[in-house]
Each structure stands twice: as C-alpha cells, then as structure tokens.
Amino acid sequence: MKMAGKGLLVVVSGPSGAGKGTICKNLLDINKDIVASVSATTRMPREGELNGKNYFFVSRDKFEQMIADDDFIEYAVVYDNYYGTPRRFVEENLENGKDVLLEIDIQGALQVKDRYREGVFVFILPPSMEELKNRIIKRGTESEREILKRFEAAYKEINFVSRYNYFIINDKVDEATEKLRSIIIAEKCRVDRFKMQFIGE
Ligand code: 5GP
User: Does any domain span residue 157?
Assistant: First the structure.
C-alpha cells in the first residue's frame, strides 16, 4: 500500500513559564523526523542565544520589510517586539513530507489555524499559577517589570486553551514530552490525512 501525505504542522503555545521551550527541545531530541522553524524577532538576543539557531535577530525595519514581502505565515507583536514565522522554511518542509514544529504565541497560532486547518494545535499549561510565577522568576532572564507583564499576560492567555486541539499540563517534563510525542504519532495515523492507494496484488 502506498500512502501520499504532506508533513504534519505542529503548533505549540502556552504562557511564558509553562515550559513549552523545554518540551519542544526534548521532543526534537527524540524525534529526528520533525524540524523546528526558527522565527524572526526584533527582540535583543539573551545571553547564549545564537542568531539563526534560537531566532533570526533582525531590526524593526528589516522585519517590516519582511512583512511587506509576505515572508511570514504569521507574525505578532509579543511583549513589544515583533515575532514571525518564515514562510519558505515551513512550506518547503511540509511539501517534502517533513513534520514542522512551531513554538509561537497564541495570536500567531490563531493566524496559522485560519490558514492551515490541517495543523495540530497543542496548548501547554503550567500545573498551577503559583508554579508559573515561580518558573518565570527562577528563569531570571527578565527584569521585574517584564516578569509582571508576562505573568499578567499568562492569566489572560490560559483562556485560549479552548481554541486548541490538545492540552498538556506540564507537571513532569518527561511525561509532558511523551504526551506531545504521542499526540503526533496519533495524528499521523489519522485516516483523513492520507489519500490511501492500494497497489499491487
Ligand atoms: P521569548 O521572547 O521568550 O523567546 O518568546 C516570547 C513569546 O513569543 C513566546 O510565547 C514564544 O512562543 C513567542 N514566539 C516565538 N516565536 C514566535 C513567532 O514566530 N511568532 C509568534 N507569533 N510568536 C512567537
């Protein structure tokens, strides 16, 4: 039996501090068939972040030029900076049958949902709001003002879970990663994703 299918687009969102970055990183370590899209942003690099690996760090002018050129499948302003998903990487990989992972905010995910109905949308939740606050503080990469802003945003964002297909509570990171891996496996077994063709005898 021969099966023709495009790659799976997996979109992961969740409030800052829910741990989506770690889960996505762990998933990429264990699943070599999935590629992560590298976003463009106007935010300054954090210590240790590399251009082209964590993000493409670009100026506001450059980002706005990319918007005008229709270079993004989605973009949004998150905490006063632009973030966007480059179109070419995503479309080429999906076309070549590769699964593509996007770790993007809710505004971006909803734009993608409008355009790529066949995508899988996963929302990562923290075990509690208290734990979420601790995690944002513990990460220590943001100023006090930034921490408050992210925490307030997280409160509002959690309601958007209803727009996603799946949720994962990130209590234990290994279990949460396993759940994401299982969601992808199950989605790839869905009959409606394939044009099945019986060939041969
Ligand atoms: P951070 O500054 O902590 O790296 O990311 C801030 C937020 O922006 C996170 O919620 C992250 O998922 C989101 N983000 C990263 N890249 C993109 C993107 O390309 N598009 C959108 N809409 N959000 C993004």
Answer: yes
Amino acid at 111: Q
In tens, the pLDDT along 106-158 reads: 999 999 999 999 999 999 999 888 888 888 788 777 788 888 888 888 888 89
Query: Whose C-alpha lies nearest to ligand 1, atom 14?
Result: 104
The whole domain housing 115 covers 2-37+98-197
∠ CA 74-176-53, nearest 5°, is: 45
- Does residue 124 lie in a domain region? yes
Percentages of the chain per state (helix, strand, coil), in multiples of 5: 45, 25, 30
- 82 domain-assigned: no
Q: For a substitution probing ligand 1, which of 71, 75, 78 has the most ligand atoms within 8 Å of its CB?
A: 78
Element (H, E) at 49: none
Q: What is the CATH number of the domain that holds 159?
A: 3.40.50.300
Question: Which protein residues touch ligand 1 with a CB less than 6 Å away?
Answer: 16, 39, 43, 74, 76, 78, 83-85, 103-105, 107-108
